[in-house]
UniProtKB/TrEMBL annotation:
Keywords: Leucine-rich repeat, Phosphoprotein, Repeat, Ubl conjugation pathway
Region (Disordered): 240-267, 282-323, 370-400
Listed Polar residues bias regions: 282-291, 384-393
This protein's name: Leucine-rich repeat-containing protein 41
Keyword Coiled coil tagged: no
Length: 772
């Protein structure tokens, strides 16, 4: 209690100082620097924010104060705290998120409790990244009318919007989300949308986020009509169409009023329900319909073409494919007294709320501008087009998206208004069904602003072909910007090299391609019927600069990789992970292919590839005059080697002046090999090595200290002239003698930047026994 007394007294005094600042604020900011320095820690965050300019003019930094605020209020250590450039932004951004989600009580600290301070409003300009989770409570709060100014601030500051652990939502939540996405993406600055960990995704919600991220929303939708920014952009012709549609709706209401009076609920009930559900979709959405046999999960969509031809069609006679029967998915509204007329009749800007998908999957005939300008003479024909091409419409092919030539295999989106879209889409651990993949494929086909696409653990399986069809269509757009594609999953539907060839043949503009799988889904040669082998596809000259392949323990055949290398003359980085070498000559063939086909290759990485019997090839790589970074990660380099092999490695690196980075994690170096590696920096060395990674190598504190002493001796002999700048020591046994380890690290940090961690080496006892 005695200890709390002075702290409480200080808090009261500081709060009094902060309260008295209002009238004297201008005079206070004019104080000399040494007086201002003593005043800043006594301010609330509202006053501290306002003092930034004065502190800067006085040559003072508020960073230590914001860092102390973080420690006192957040009471956690942020990841990579040593690399945080601005603690003010870091604090206010986290503060915003915690207040929004109800994690932080502003009354818990006097520095947060200022009657001038609106937590969300004043911190929102500093928020560049925001995560919404669970039931989207944050979205509901931000879309509320009283937070209008907060949303306006976020529209200018927010760049990354994340969704995590989402749950199913009702129509009011979805409406709030639509308002939020429309403002932050369509009329805002959000450039990246990421979704994480959604084991059983709500299809309606998922498609809503994807489509609005792609910039699609119905131009005549009630939301767009109410949005002031959209209203400013509306053309006179749109207004005319809007008025005509409103007239049609009024007339229909009058016709149905008599029926409502005959025992049905009042029309106002329908209007209220309609207004509340304008942005909602029924649970029985088209994406949940049972597809026809040809488009089952065993065989994904077969878009009949990207360039020209017919729209995707269903197997004849299948009931779910009939254009009229398909519409039975709509819910019947007991509050609606009017009869359902033609499916497309009277579709005004306040179109039926159930069809969220209408604006994404409508197939508009060439020359037509949208839904509202259809004449009644072509209504029946257009209705069939729109219905048969909805997302629930299965495709004709069995497996894979085989193009047969014909107009648009990807559904047209002409009926939707196109807004601004994001440039990065990331989906992590979100299962995508065949129908959802078709949805994504449709969106991708014209998503020209997309620059980065990450699909990680989505259970794509054979549906990867459907995604590829959308990418192929996208690649033909002159304004296409997609340059980075990363695909990872548990199961591989086809051999990795075959998939790489498929992707590059569909999208040669890629600069970065990463393909990663854990397990093979089926034996080679047992692919679904009708899926042509991509190994025969011709790869055009590509722009590929970085290629990463993680094989599901597949053999690495250079003959399959060679066409990719030949088409990728600009390749600068190549990473091969978890591959097996089918024969002793395979690695040599790969090195010859790399030398012949990739003259610009700068970085080469092998991970979990057994190189114990390939010492000659390892030395050849270390001699390469072009490579600047080489990684042998968990490659068992010294499993069956002799002391001479280590000496050859050291001498080779000493003679190579082009190699800048050598990474050897997980190769069981042990103490004695680490000490020997210090000779790379000896006086007679011409090496330019800057970075050395010896993580996970059973290194103990005494070995590290001996390495340090030897390194210091070489530096002294060279008169302090050394280019070595970074040493990585993750997951070594430095906890076995803390005092020795600390001495070694202290002396090393005087020479280079050292990155290590606190790791419990007792878990690696079995590995230690195998090295002894």
């Amino acid at each position: 209690m005695a200890a709390e007394g002075p702290r409480s007294l200080f808090a009261l005094s500081a709060a009094a100082v902060s309260r008295s600042m209002g009238a004297l604020e201008r005079d206070v900011w004019a104080l000399p620097g040494h007086l201002l320095r003593g005043l800043l820690p006594l301010l609330t965050i509202f006053r501290l924010e306002r003092a930034e300019g004065a502190a800067r003019r006085a040559g003072l930094s508020t960073q230590p104060i914001w860092r102390q605020l973080w420690d006192d209020v957040m009471k956690t250590r942020p990841p990579n705290s040593e690399n945080i450039p601005c603690w003010r932004k870091k604090f206010l951004e986290t503060f915003f998120s915690n207040v929004l989600h109800g994690v932080l009580d502003v009354s818990s600290d006097w520095r947060l409790n200022d009657h001038h301070f609106s937590p969300l409003l004043h911190s929102s300009p500093h928020v560049s990244q925001l995560t919404l989770c669970n039931m989207l409570q944050g979205a509901v709060e931000l879309a509320a009318e009283h937070n209008h100014k907060v949303l306006e601030n976020l529209a200018g500051s927010l760049r990354i919007l994340k969704f995590q652990h989402l749950l199913s939502s009702d129509q009011s939540i979805r409406r709030s989300l639509v308002l939020l996405l429309h403002r932050l993406i369509h009329h805002g600055s959000v450039s990246q949308v990421s979704m994480y960990s959604w084991p059983v995704p709500d299809t309606v919600l998922l498609v809503l986020i994807l489509s609005m991220s792609a910039g699609f929303w119905r131009s005549g939708n009630a939301l767009a009509y109410q949005c002031g920014l959209c209203r400013e952009d509306r053309a006179p012709s749109q207004e005319l169409v809007q008025e005509r549609a409103e007239s049609g709706r009024d007339a229909e209401r009058e016709r149905s009023s008599g029926e409502n009076q005959k025992g049905f609920p009042e029309a106002s009930v329908e209007a209220d329900a309609h207004l509340n559900s304008v942005l909602s979709v029924p649970r029985s959405s088209p994406l949940q319909n049972q597809p026809c046999e040809e488009a089952s999960s065993e065989g994904p969509c077969d878009h009949t073409s990207i360039q020209g031809g017919s729209s995707p069609r269903c197997g004849s006679g299948h009931p779910s494919c009939h254009p009229v029967l398909r519409k039975t998915r709509r819910r019947l509204k007991p509050a609606v007294g009017r009869k359902r007329r033609c499916l497309r009749r009277s579709r005004g800007p306040y179109a039926d709320p159930e069809d969220l998908y209408d604006f994404v999957f409508t197939v508009a005939r060439e020359g037509n501008s949208g839904l509202l300008d259809k004449t009644s003479s072509t209504e029946d024909e257009n209705t069939e087009n729109w219905t048969s091409s909805s997302p629930g419409s299965p495709c004709t092919g069995r497996a894979g998206c085989k193009k047969r030539g014909g107009p648009a295999g990807i559904f047209s989106l002409k009926a939707a208004h196109r807004f601004r879209s994001v440039s990065t889409l990331e989906l992590f651990s979100i299962p995508l069904t065949g129908e959802t993949c078709r949805t994504l494929s449709n969106l991708l086909s014209s998503w020209v602003s997309l620059e980065n696409l990450v699909l990680s653990y989505n259970g794509l399986d054979a549906n990867i072909c459907c995604i590829l069809s959308g990418l192929r269509a996208l690649s033909r757009h002159p304004g296409c910007r997609l340059r980075v594609l990363r695909v990872s999953d548990v199961f591989s539907h086809m051999p990795c090299m075959e998939l790489v060839r498929c992707i590059l043949s569909a999208f040669p503009q890629l600069h970065t391609l990463s393909v990663s799988f854990d397990l093979k889904n089926q034996p080679e040669g047992n692919r679904p019927e009708g899926n042509p082998s991509c190994s025969e596809v011709e790869i055009p000259e590509s722009c590929l600069e970085q290629l990463e392949i993680r094989f599901p323990r597949e053999p690495l055949h250079t003959t399959f990789l060679l066409p990719v290398l030949k088409a990728s003359k600009s390749l600068q980085q190549l990473s091969l992970d978890s591959a097996t070498l089918p024969c002793s000559q395979e690695l040599g063939l790969l090195l010859e292919a790399l030398k012949e086909c990739t003259p610009n290759l700068k970085k080469l990485s092998f991970h979990d590839v057994n190189l114990a019997e390939h010492q000659k090839e390892v030395l050849l790589l270390l001699q390469d005059p072009v490579l600047q970074e080489i990684t042998f990660s968990f490659c068992r380099l010294f499993e069956s080697s002799t002391a001479e092999f280590l000496s050859e490695i050291i001498n080779t690196v000493k003679r190579n002046s082009s190699l800048k980075s050598l990474k050897l994690p997980g190769n069981r170096l042990g103490n004695h090999r680490l000490v020997a590696l210090a000779d790379i920096f000896s006086e007679d060395s011409s090496s330019s090595l800057c970075q050395l990674d010896v993580s996970s190598n059973c290194i103990k504190p005494d070995g590290l200290l001996e390495f340090t002493r030897k390194l210091e001796g070489h530096i002294q002999q060279r008169g302090g002239q050394i280019q070595f700048t970074h040493l990585r020591l993750f997951q070594n046994w430095l906890d076995q003698d803390t005092e020795t380890a600390q001495e070694a690290l202290r002396r090393l940090k005087a020479v280079c930047s050292v990155v290590n961690d606190s790791w419990d080496s007792s878990q690696a006892f079995a590995d230690y026994i195998s090295v002894m």
